[in-house]
## 1
Amino acid sequence: GQNIDQPTEMTATEGAIVQINCTYQTSGFNGLFWYQQHAGEAPTFLSYNVLDGLEEKGRFSSFLSRSKGYSYLLLKELQMKDSASYLCALGGSGGYQKVTFGIGTKLQVIP
Amino acid sequence: EADIYQTPRYLVIGTGKKITLECSQTMGHDKMYWYQQDPGMELHLIHYSYGVNSTEKGDLSSESTVSRIRTEHFPLTLESARPSHTSQYLCASSGGLAGGHLTDTQYFGPGTRLTVL
């Protein structure tokens, strides 16, 4: 099976940088996803890491270390609209495309 | 921008009624999924499909059923709605290509918020 751990809640200041960590235990996976979900809305795709290292996409970056079972999402120049839950998710292994979602980290951005 | 649609967006219905939640995608994705999510809680996979005529139960037991007669359409049916079915239901699909490789990135519809009285 797959097990994902994330902090439940975080608070950060507008304009700052915040790092949301995700640790996992799994017997195998294709890649690791990060999704953003605003309250009452559907998750939207942010990033996908297959190989170890950093993937940068504008203000958001995601990092993966398979050997450490660890990933993080880095949000720079925080804006109020970044207040949302951030879901770490593991893709299935091989051709098995089920995705396992973590419970998510609720980020509150304050002025 | 993902092209996946759900109807209705909101539904309030009495106990015992039969309901069907619609989900359609125009991306030609083979894989489709239904999730159930209560406010502030995690996503729970209740059904998935790998293609036409393929349906599987997910990780969370559900009294709902699904069908996949066409690639683009994956409706979910509750034969007899109960208050315990009150939740948000999210449909997703995957199977597109990124950089020439098949990806399991899931794209979500806007969801149906169901309330059973």
Note: Chain A has no helices and eleven strands.
## 2
Amino acid sequence: AQTVTQSQPEMSVQEAETVTLSCTYDTSESDYYLFWYKQPPSRQMILVIRQEAYKQQNATENRFSVNFQKAAKSFSLKISDSQLGDAAMYFCAYRTIIQGAQKLVFGQGTRLTINP
Amino acid sequence: KAGVTQTPRYLIKTRGQQVTLSCSPISGHRSVSWYQQTPGQGLQFLFEYFSETQRNKGNFPGRFSGRQFSNSRSEMNVSTLELGDSALYLCASSDMRQGSYEQYFGPGTRLTVT
């Protein structure tokens, strides 16, 4: 079974600085999708960025980028120029498909605090 | 397009009762998935529906069930509620067409069982 591990329960960063959140996963599949979701205090899960495993190029969305290391099964999220609105729980998720049915497997989350 | 909507947003029930939660996906999305979020267990997959068929189910007892209607709206039902069922229940929809596999989440339903 696929598992996702986020080893940093909490992280903090100064506003305008850069922070990296770690995520590792375990799978025997060769083709899959990885995601980072953000959950602010409002509890709404917001998709931040996605990565297809078959793509070698790391995904980027404005200030958010990933470092995808397929062989190491590592998928870290880098947030540049941190803003107060980035404060939230961040979840790493692995999308698995079983006989056409999909599900997301989530890590335990990292709580990110932005210090002004 | 309007996002995923869930009703009700908050619910308080007593042990032994049953509850029905509703989810309306983004227009055009045919896949609806449900997740349970608790402080202890984190985010856990409940089930996925596609074209009115349950395609996948997580490791939850039979008290948890769901269905999907022809307009892709979905409901989940929990019977004989237990204190441990208190959680945030999240619904997510996805397009499932080639290259569109992201799941978009609703605001959730906060269920409290007393």
Note: Chain B is about 0% helix and 55% strand.
